[in-house]
Design a protein that fits this description.
Layout lengths: L5 H15 L4 E5 L3 E2 L39 H4 L2 H9 L2 E4 L6 E6 L2 H10 L4 E4 L4 E6 L5 E5 L2 E4 L5 E2 L9 E2 L2 H4 L30 H17 L4 H16 L7 H13 L4 H15 L2
Parallel strand pairs: 6-10
Antiparallel strand pairs: 1-2, 1-3, 3-9, 4-6, 4-8, 5-6, 7-8
Helix pairs in contact: 1-3, 6-7, 6-8, 7-9
């Protein structure tokens, strides 16, 4: 292996230390961006997996594919192509989701003030313009969830700026909820079933069709591992778009959907609002 320069050596030592503790790392070039794909991997022709939910770089030995290149394999980190990348690197980055972490990236004093008033205290790391708040637990990353606030976890990378201070706490629901786009509330509304259409004749012909649809909707809600609010709303919307105009939905069917949603932690009020919003969206 080529002997590293002081800067290269510092990045490489940091990367190896993080990898040893189970944190997947990758080099960043100037501008805090990953190294571009090599010619072999251009346009993802190699079959690399930068858009999947789990990291899985291709067999190319270069640090390609952005966050998906992050690794804890010291043989890869010390490989000649990576050593050349460390030589040209401006910083070390890591894949928070791969380490079971979520970073709330606060980009200005206003965002920091909001976090201090709204989020549970946890480990913090100073950044150039703000702070990183680190929580134990992974979720889907997202940008601009609030003014000056990004979420970096699964399918994202964060610059390594040191271990930070404070005790890391478990990822709270209030952070998970930041990535959920709530349907707008149309005001208090009673849960109603659309009036019978087509003289009361169900266009689905057999009750089995409706029962199967309700069962699939229950399963979709139950299987949601994240973004439960949005999943409930989209499921209600799908049920109503298929079954809402013929008058075959009953209170018992709606109760089954509400029960499934509440079993996932949704409140009765949210279920009512989501159902009313779905009715309004479809003009029912």
């Amino acid at each position: 292996m080529t002997q590293p320069t002081d800067v290269q050596g510092e990045h490489l030592r940091t990367a190896l230390s993080l990898a040893a503790s189970g944190v997947p790392v990758l080099p960043l070039r100037a501008g805090k961006v990953p190294f571009g794909n090599c010619r072999r991997c251009a346009t993802n022709a190699c079959g690399g997996r930068p858009n999947m939910k789990t990291p899985g770089p291709c067999t190319c030995p270069a640090p390609c594919h952005g966050w998906a290149a992050a690794t804890t394999d010291t043989r890869v980190i010390n490989a000649p192509t990576w050593v050349r990348a460390w030589r040209d690197a401006a910083a070390v980055a890591y894949h928070p989701g791969g380490a079971g972490l979520t970073v709330v990236d606060l980009d200005n004093p206003e965002a920091i003030a909001w976090a201090r008033a709204s989020l549970p205290a946890t480990r913090t790391v100073p950044t150039t313009r703000g702070e990183h708040w680190l929580y134990q637990g992974a979720m889907q990353g997202a940008n601009a969830v609030r003014p000056g606030v990004d979420i970096k976890s699964t399918m994202a990378y964060a610059r390594w700026l040191g271990p930070g201070t404070g005790t890391m706490t478990a990822l709270p629901d209030v952070v998970r909820a930041l990535t959920v786009k709530e349907p707008s509330t149309v005001g208090p509304a009673a849960v109603t079933v659309p009036a019978l259409a087509m003289d009361g004749e169900c266009r689905h012909r057999t009750p089995a069709f409706l029962d199967r649809g309700i069962a699939m909707a229950e399963q979709r809600i139950t299987a949601a591992s994240s973004a439960v609010h949005a999943t409930v709303y989209r499921t209600f919307l799908a049920v109503l778009s298929t079954h809402g105009r013929c008058g075959c939905l009953t209170d018992a069917h709606i109760a089954r959907l509400f029960t499934a949603a509440q079993a996932k932690g949704e409140s009765a009020r949210h279920c009512t609002d989501a159902w009313a919003n779905a009715l309004t969206r479809l003009g029912l």
